[in-house]
TrEMBL record:
Domain of life where this protein originates: Eukaryota
Gene: Dsec\GM21195
Entry keywords, A to Z: Membrane, Transmembrane, Transmembrane helix
Membrane-crossing segments per the record: 20-38, 50-73, 103-124, 144-162, 174-192, 212-232
Ribonucleoprotein is among the record's keywords: no
Name of the featured protein: GM21195
UniProt entry tagged with the keyword Isomerase: no
């Protein structure tokens, strides 16, 4: 008897998904750093708090519509796909940025390091979970649903915390949002390695998943930014890069 040929192995889209996520995350982080330096923009948004809420609503609707109509969008010409993706990306990035308030440079630097460290941990955890078939797995539908919910929840939390006058309340609130995002990126990492998670018949499905994963990593990044900033403010520390550099490397000479 002839042996049956084994079924062809499905191509893994995990690597391309991470590439999409990393590219979007780096661009988003650059935009945050630039936006915080534009004083007229900060003053304009600080005086018009309602605009942050409008951005939040537009962001929420954009995520829902993009995910719902993605199977139609991928069949459209390249310029339509590019325009839809760019609009959704920029709206979501701007909605959670909170440029009206300035974060210390040390918070931005620490947050970049912590975010990519968490990404490395998620890769290790995802590979380990699928290897041992034990971990925080969930279905594709729930990943997409909770990806949107976690982002929207974090976005709304950051907007609300921007108006808080008591840092003792702001810090624990932001810490909770950051922990939620940290846990979910691990769940996402494990789940997208499950068999049949990606729709092989859908062109560019990994782009949709990469964009959703970006939302959670960007929410995590902004959570780190404002949690560390509020912690520094709560402790009453001076967070000037020059002062820290002098303290670490020139303190003995000064003494």
């Amino acid at each position: 008897m002839l042996r049956e040929n084994p079924p062809p192995r499905q191509k893994s889209w995990v690597g391309p998904t991470y590439r999409v996520t990393i590219i979007m995350l780096v661009i988003g982080q650059i935009q945050v750093s630039v936006a915080m330096e534009i004083t007229p923009l900060k003053e304009f948004l600080a005086d018009r708090y309602y605009l942050s809420l409008v951005q939040f609503v537009v962001s929420f609707l954009s995520i829902q519509l993009y995910g719902f109509f993605y199977h139609i969008i991928v069949k459209k010409p390249m310029w339509v796909r590019l325009l839809a993706g760019l609009w959704t990306y920029e709206v979501n990035t701007m909605s959670i940025m909170k440029p009206a308030k300035r974060a210390p440079y040390i918070s931005l630097i620490l947050s970049i390091i912590l975010t990519f460290l968490m990404m490395i941990i998620s890769v290790i955890y995802g590979n380990s979970a699928i290897k041992h078939k034990k971990g925080l797995f969930t279905t594709r539908h729930k990943v997409i649903l909770w990806s949107e919910r976690i982002f929207v929840l974090t976005c709304f939390g950051i907007i609300v915390c921007a108006e808080m006058k008591r840092v003792i309340i702001e810090f624990p609130t932001l810490l909770v949002y950051t922990i939620l995002s940290s846990v979910f990126v691990m769940v996402f990492a494990a789940s997208m390695r499950k068999p049949n998670f990606y729709r092989q018949e859908s062109t560019g499905d990994y782009i949709l998943i990469g964009q959703l994963y970006y939302l959670n990593f960007f929410a995590l990044y902004m959570g780190y930014v404002w949690t560390t900033a509020s912690f520094i403010e709560l402790m009453g520390w001076r967070a000037d890069i020059h002062d820290i550099f002098v303290y670490l490397f020139y303190r003995k000479n000064i003494e």
